[in-house]
Design goal:
Helix content is 27%, strand content 39%. The protein is an alpha+beta fold and 113 residues long. The strands form 2 sheets. Strands 1-2-4-3 form a 4-stranded antiparallel β-sheet, with helices on one face. Strands 5-6 form a two-stranded antiparallel sheet.
Amino acid sequence: MRRILVIVTATLAGCASTAPTRIGADTYYAAKTNTAGIFGDVSAVAGKLMVEGNQFCAAQGREFELVTQSMQNNVPGVRFGGASITFKCVQHAGAVVMRPDNGVTTVQPETKP
């Protein structure tokens, strides 16, 4: 009975993840699949990815800058939900704003004519 309880608990709390993978100059991709089914919160998965990205960049003496974020909701019996992010490790991160397509971009400094 205890073994079944451990398996169920691990399934409800589990996440499959991809460690930050370099995809370009100081640019990385990371993803997590939420295996908790209907009990999972994909926005929390995205938040965890950002925390891990911050830690990854801080270990290099740099700042985390989010480039894109994508979330896929859980569909019981069909697929697990999850999230993925693309980020950069930069010397000084810029301000971040959400675009209408829910992508993320940095704000470019405004130049006056």
